[in-house]
User: Fold this.
Amino acid sequence: MLFIDNDTVSKVLSMSECIDAQDTAFRGLPTGASVHRPRIDVYVPTEHEDDYYRWGTMEGASKELGVFAIRMKSDILYWPQDEHGFWKEEKYSVQPGLYCGLIFLFSTRNAEPLALINDGILQHMRVGGGAGLGAKYLSREDSHTVGMIGSGGMARTYLEAFAAIRDIRKVRVFSPTKANREAYAKEMAEKLELDIEPVDAPELAVEDADIVAAATNAMQPALLGRWLRTGQHVTDVRGELDEEVHTRADVVVQQGVSHSRPRNEDPQHMGEGYNRGDYMAGSEEELARLPERHRGGNIGGGGGGVVSTFNDLASGRIPGRTSPDDITLYLNAGNQGLQFAAVGSVVYNKCKELGLGRELPTEWFLQDIRD
Assistant:
């Protein structure tokens, strides 16, 4: 069994492989060759008045790849406002700047534990790869410009994914903190050899862009529908779009569909939170600490009626873009657990091939007592 850290993941995983692995795994869902369990979070109040503990998991498996993965994360959440009055979600494990997230990979052929993988790099890559997959099927083939709202880790892998599937030449980036957007522009221009311009307002990033992405941790809509132009392809990270983005889109596709029960059908508070499959402890006063989106609200609007998924698109059951003037919208969420199985399999196989990763005795994880 291997322990694979973030540095090793960054050495072996390319964005093209990340996109292709998800494409293959997602196509197995309608045939029964793949399966996923949507994300479920467990919230517990802490002794502080301004934060909450959250344990989150998601799972997926692929018969073709021969693997099952569970992604696990342990966070303290809190919600500060920045100097512009925008709410953000922040988190840590043990102390600010440290995080705890792991992917546990198993063989579906003999149930052997295969690897424990730090989730930091792989998490960003699988989300960026998911956005790239949507752009591959929905953006115009002559897309050359990107409007990026956000300058964090997801904004970096989103741009890397767009550049992997389209001939991107020009990028405009906005984030509320000038230093952050300027640092993003410098770093990503050097990494991808692109012309990247930091701009002072989000609508300036969106105008004239062929591909538009909201990749933020904002607690309110970061991308507004009134900024959109015909022919654009739009994607998100956390649903940070307003209602008008959904109503203006000619084609709306969601990566996958999650199913859950409403809270009033479950005495243990399942389905109350943002992921619609959360279990939440706490008194009414303690639950009031949580932003509305964690208590069942959403950042933006729309999306409730979306039934078309990536598999509908890839199989031809829906046409996708039918005109260069269409505005297409890809909601980049729904198959998270399967993403970790698909991309985790790529990382594990390459580490085995190259002799990378730290060996852990498999017997540490086995026992002779039937459980």
